[in-house]
Amino acid sequence: MVELGGLLRVEPGGEPVDLSAYDPRGTPGGPGGKKKGLAEIERLRPRLAALQEKLFAQSAVGGDPRRLLLVLQGMDTSGKGGTVKHVVAGLNPVGLRVRAFKAPTEEELRHNFLWRVRKALPQPGEIGVFDRSHYEDVLIARVHDLVPEATWSRRYAEINRFERGLAEDGVTVLKVFLHISPEEQRARLLARLDRPGKHWKFSPTDVEDRARWPDYQQAYEAVLERCSTQEAPWYVVPADRKWYRNWAISRLLLEHLERIGPEYPEPGFDPEKYRRLLLAL
Amino acid sequence: MVELGGLLRVEPGGEPVDLSAYDPRGTPGGPGGKKKGLAEIERLRPRLAALQEKLFAQSAVGGDPRRLLLVLQGMDTSGKGGTVKHVVAGLNPVGLRVRAFKAPTEEELRHNFLWRVRKALPQPGEIGVFDRSHYEDVLIARVHDLVPEATWSRRYAEINRFERGLAEDGVTVLKVFLHISPEEQRARLLARLDRPGKHWKFSPTDVEDRARWPDYQQAYEAVLERCSTQEAPWYVVPADRKWYRNWAISRLLLEHLERIGPEYPEPGFDPEKYRRLLLAL
């Protein structure tokens, strides 16, 4: 794990990852407290929006294939949906493609696990967001023995090949593990039970999954160790503090969009000619 | 045309529509000026977000099929994209499906004109937005003779059948024609030519279409006359003033969501039981 601008990136190469070494309440690289964090998030919004517009424009007019895919993974209540609602919501919906993956349908189960993922990918110029993803097929599938070990163990390499292909197609893949503590999860699940308007976010399976916490942490560590690649590294974002989570993901989005470096396309027409035409029309 | 809460709705039944009778700078039913309009839009945002969350929840958990589709049509610069950016952007992206339709691809042309539209429909619980739509197939297709009259003239009835089917599937269809004046369009096109950061929004075909203004108004009148049905009526929103346009569409979204009347689903579990389990776990 290295700190890049304070953010935790899992180095490609398969080094062992021990999640217990990272404090879910931590704020590595943070802007110094909640108040500054919230202000910084607001300061980042227009910069993100400006980059998104250029990304969209260079594809819509210039045919540029590049796009961004943000993959959000983490235990229940770790803030995947909250990130979409509070960070992604600032972007222009026309260039956004958000997909929340649930348990696969019968039709999806008849295909390879990547089938439904391919259909949900961002198109050129778009920002895509996955709330859960193909990684569930080596997480819940592994912890709950939904498929034999021989099947899920092959998937890590298949995922790496898939994501390498995405990179070749111009997709910048930004993968974030939202690292929450069991204590914070308990508090958030209890809050969902306490408020009728939040009951719909609660499922009895959340409690079953919680009972398998160590198995899930182990499954996440395997993902981080095996699927952090040069083309698509994993980031670990401590997520007990919502403001830090939102700040960190805003920062990561900004850095990755800046790395793409989108630019407005050159006009394929003479503006002066059309100005004259319009003034006459 | 009737005024409902001041908003212009085309009555089903095929009465003649004369767009020149409606002032594009008008603010029918408006809240009384720009300042009040902007304040009112902000006041509506949390109400829209709350209704959207219930719509999403009752489908995600309760299996309710209902959803909303906002169809935006209008001349270039009439504010279809602006509506998405300034009104729709306030909603939670996870329950949103926005699609901007361009000239059909070769693959799309090999299918019936409704093929690509069906693929872009909102799923249960979602709010869908079409920036342009199947109506282009009786607008640009008619004005520019892209297909024979025998073809486009059959499409009005086909569209009505299609939208009746949507209503039966639980889709509330809200269709808005953004009514802009040629003078305002000239100003907006000139603004796009003046600023390099806006060049990408300009296309030489915008000027060609502008030269066919009367033909387009006639084609829009035919749409409003023939395709305003009980299940899916058309609304005419004067769009020269952006604040009014945003206010009117916020109001329309609110009214249509309230008509659906979404409610949080009943929990399929005993909250008290899980509260005890969690406190022990």
Kindly describe this structure.
2 copies of one chain form a homodimer. With 281 residues, chain A is of the alpha/beta class. Chain A has a single domain (2-280), classed as Rossmann fold, CATH 3.40.50.300. Chain A is built from 11 helices and 7 strands. The first copy, chain A, has a 7-stranded mixed β-sheet, sandwiched between helices. In chain A, helix 1 runs parallel beside helix 10 (242-260). The longest helix of chain A is centred in the first third of the chain and has 27 residues, at 34-60. The radius of gyration of chain A is 20 Å and the shape is globular. Chains A, B: One of its GO terms (molecular function) is phosphotransferase activity, phosphate group as acceptor.
**Total of DSSP H or I helical runs spanning 4+ residues of chain A:** 11
Here the CATH topology of chain A equals Rossmann fold
Runs of chain A with pLDDT <50, length 5+?
none
Biggest interface and residues each: A-B, 46 and 46 residues
Query: Which whole number gives the mean pLDDT of chain A?
Result: 96
Number of domains of chain A: 1
- Mind telling me the CATH class of chain A? Alpha Beta
The strand line-up of the biggest sheet of chain A is: 1-2-7-6-3-5-4
Query: In percent terms, what proportion of residues of chain A is strand?
Result: 5-15%
Main sheet attributes: strand count, strand direction, barrel closure of chain A = 7 strands, mixed
Order of helices and strands of chain A: EEHEHEHHEHHEHHHEHH
Distance between the termini of chain A: 62 Å
Fraction in helix of chain A: 40-55%
